[in-house]
Amino acid sequence: TLLPIVPPSITHSLPTDPVNRNRNEPLSFTIEFNSRFEANTTVTWFHDNDVIRNGITTQFTSEYEGRSTLDLGIVSRSDRGSYRVEVYNNFSNISETQRKVRSSVDLSVTISPVEPTEVKAQNLSPNKVQLSWALPYTHNDQQPSSITILLTNLTDSSLIETTLPGSPTNLVLDVVPGTRYRAVLIANNEDGEMSTLPIRFRATPAPPKVTSVVSHRLNMTSFNISVTMDYTGGETISHFDVKFRPRNSSQWSNGQKVKVQDGGRMEMGLLWYGIVTNYSLGKPSELSVEVVNDANERSSSLTKAEVLAPLSAPSTPALLSSSHDSLTLSFHLPSEGTPPVLHIIVNFSSPSHFQWECRGVEDRALGDQLDCTVPRLTSDTQYTLAVFGLGHAGRGNTSQEVSFSTTSVDNSLPTWVIVVVTLVIAMTVLIVLLAAILVLIHCCKLRQKKRKYKFNRRATLGQTAPKPLEPSHAILNRNPPAHMGISRLSEMAPPPISPPSTVTPPLCRSTPSTTVTFKFETASGSSCSNLDSDISDVHSPSYSYRVTPPPPPSTCPSTIQSQQSYHSLGRSSHTHQSLHSTRDSLSSYPPAPAHCATNV
């Protein structure tokens, strides 16, 4: 029987996607194929191009159908890589490439480390704890490459992380006595990590221990003690036992119990303050403090401290600066004695006795430098002074006396005041000068306007010939009209007048106008000022008028006697009327010769 020559083929190939397996997981690969003549068919498996010889099962399920399986069992880290299967049939004269078919797949294996078990904590001492654990036996790939311990302090939430290489099973840790902790172990390898559940434990408490005691005297029967302890995490502190004894004596007094006020847990290096009262000073100068907790655990040692130590003398004061009412001193605080320095006093012994307390001592230590200013002193005075300190032990030693003087009072004005006053005076003078100049300019302008006005008026009167006026003596000698009665005439009569004044005109000049000056006097004889005005200005307060009277026919008159002086007591109506009559009378003079004009 002739059979067709059919090349081999894979009907069910390996997975196309990479395969990943974790620890403790078995794995196998299976393919199905078609191939003629079983005796001439070969199935070969490869791992990273290396032929696999174990764990392979190949069988034909029919005349030309077969199946091949590769069983890897529990995979390990060494099973990682690429897997390939080839089906080959050499019965045929077909080409070599047609006789062989392939299928491949990539395998990744992740093996996490084994989880530590049986984790325990054992207190070796108040400061030491040993952690131990177990690692179950498994495949080597599951053994951790390192162990990490996370230790958390539950009091302050601080974290301590420790990593040990390899696969250890115990570790000794430093801890705080009496403190509670939480521990977690983590096993690590290249593929991952495995952690344990947390465990909790408490470090063994330690008895309290006093490391130092300092005493500050408050008064004659009480003092303050400062106790520094090396004690944490243990039982609550119950009280302190304070004992006293004289210096260089081995006998201690009965203890005085001082209760702790705040209680609670004490941190390492705690500084505790307490007050011991009802204690007579006497001669004791040393004390002992014993710390007791609620478990009646006591301090392992007793510490002595000075109860009373007077302050030494400050250094000799030096003068930093002086003024007319103050002195600034500089000196060093006492270098010996029971701290702190509570007060520094400057003691003045002359010229009078008084004291001054310096400021800023609170934050200073023994031997520190201090600058102190003493105010409200008298100027130009020498003072003798010394310095001493006050502490809990009372007044300390006094420094050496020194003498310093204040300066005299400087009465001179400050420079800035002198400058300001000078500027004010200069500005005032400048303003006055400017005002005077402005007033002078204004007066000059007014005077110039007045002169211009007079000039214009004279020019106007010279061009327009006035009506000839009747001479003044004619006015005075003229009879009143017949129709005017005696009463009316008395109203027109001027008031009593003084003797007539003489007006001496200047020499004849060829001027177009003549000035007539009337001199008015009051009844008491006081003279008014000569006034110069136009005759037509009857409302003006001036009584000098400019007219052009005719001279005598042939010669220029030399003197005209004024027959009457007018009494000026205001501008009454009869005065105005008399003036107009005078002007009319002057106009009756005959015209003057052409060669002159007469000034009357």
From TrEMBL:
* SUPFAM superfamilies assigned to the protein according to its UniProt record, in alphabetical order: Fibronectin type III (SSF49265), Immunoglobulin (SSF48726)
Q: Which UniProt keywords apply?
A: Membrane, Repeat, Transmembrane, Transmembrane helix
| Membrane spanning residue stretches | 416-444
| Database matches in InterPro entries | FN3_dom, FN3_sf, Ig-like_dom, Ig-like_dom_sf, Ig-like_fold, Striated_Muscle_Regulatory
Look up the domain of life of the source: Eukaryota
- Show where the Fibronectin type-III domain sits: 115-207, 313-409
Q: Where is there biased composition of kind Low complexity?
A: 556-565
Q: What is this protein called?
A: Titin
Organism for this UniProt entry: Geodia barretti (Barrett's horny sponge)
